[in-house]
Amino acid sequence: MNENNNTNIIDLREIIKRLWDKKMVFVKVLPIVFVLACIYILPEPRYYTSNVTLAPEMGSVSGGGSLTSIATSFGIDLGAMQNPDAIYPDLYPNLMESTGFVVSLFDIKVSNLDGDIQTDYFNYLAKHRKRSIWKKPFDWVKKQIRKLTEPKQQATPNSNKKGVDPFFLNKKQHGIVGVIRENITCNVDKKTSVITISVKDQDRLVCASMADSVRVRLQEYITNYRTHKAKIDVEHYSKLTAEAKHTYERARQLYGSFSDANSDVILESYRAKRTDLENDMQLKYNTYTALNTQLQAAKAKLQEVTPAFTVIQCASVPDKPSGPKRMLFVLGMLFFAAIVTTCWLIRDLLGIAPFRKE
After folding, report:
1. Start-to-end C-alpha separation, the chain
2. 274: which of 29, 174, 292, 338 is 20 to 30 A away, CA to CA?
3. What is the DSSP letter of 323?
4. Is the dihedral of CA 104, 106, 109, 115 positive or negative?
5. Lowest mean pLDDT among 24-33, 122-131, 147-156
6. How far apart are CA 358 and CA 355, in angstroms?
7. pTM score, two decimals?
8. Are 183 and 175 in contact (CB under 8 A)?
9. What CA–CA distance (Å, rounded) separates 333 from 4?
10. Burial of 326 (0-12, 13-18, 19+ CB in 10 A)
């Protein structure tokens, strides 16, 4: 039985011969690509990255053990599912991307490593951020087009108030919010619940300062959320305890004055009145003691619900830039140019010559 198998064979020798014959094309293309890649990437400003790692206090999960370990291996956090709090570590990245939290970072004071810039974070990003010379013409064109096409922005209802209202942001503030969201990121390890805050900036000192400030702001936000109701209880019982103490002291003074003024009187009416004053004083004292006990319990509850964060890795000033990777960019462009040139030189071979029938 005769079988005719039509197989397609790529003739690598023919391809290599063609590329060798056209090697001068690579000699011309690759240096040009190298120069253009260097011209593009060298003016790009360097940026640094500083990281902060936190371990939040986690409540115990009932029915833990092997079930919890199995669920964690599949990326399911049973602690978060049974946690009564609305904000648990998995939601911290969403919290840090919220407009309210980002706007709260506007007023953080920063200074650069040289010491010639000392301002808040909003003005630093708006006025002192470096731009590549290749992007400046495009920014200027966009600005001119925006002036011609966009209507004049009206004043917001809160424009005369101090501070920034997250509900009403102008065009410039919206742009800075976007920049901050790109520069500041938060990642949570679902298995260990370890929080990593990363801050990227063109200045090393600003980078480290913002990383530490964002950590503090996040801790303050979570602490205020977790202790809000407990603080209200403490304030409530503090007010009631102060009023009860004042009422008790007045009753005690009234009883003491009456007893001193009628110490030698043997009339039953005076004795009965003194007994009534004593009983009233005792009742007010019992009320004061009960409220003071509740106040101490509320303070203990406040201390109990206050979350604790363990700083695993603190912020530090980076010594080396994290990007842009200029050498990798140039090598990548050279590799891409070599691939494109190769495909262009053997385009006819790829269509006909590499395949032959046997």
Report:
1. 17
2. 292
3. B
4. positive
5. 147-156
6. 10
7. 0.69
8. no
9. 45
10. middle
pLDDT in tens, 71-107: 444 444 544 444 555 566 778 888 888 888 999 999 9
For residue 265, what are its two tokens?
Answer: 């009187």
Q: Which two tokens stand for residue 122?
A: 């909003």
Let me know: does 108 contact 208? Beta carbons within 8 Å: no
Backbone angles phi, psi at 207, to 5 degrees: -60, -50
Token representation of residue 263: 């110490």
CA 187 distance to own-chain centroid: 9
DSSP state of 90: G
Residues in the chain: 358
Between CA 34 and CA 141 the distance in angstroms is: 28
Distance, in Å, from the CA atom of 162 to the CA atom of 158, rounded to the nearest integer, reads 8
Which of 337, 322, 302 minimizes the C-alpha distance to 228? 302
**Amino acid identity, residue 256?**
G
| Residue appearing with tokens 């202790």 | 227
Residue 34 CA to residue 37 CA, distance in Å, equals: 5
Enumerate residues 6+ apart whose C-beta is below 8 A from 198.
49, 50, 51, 184, 185, 186, 187, 211
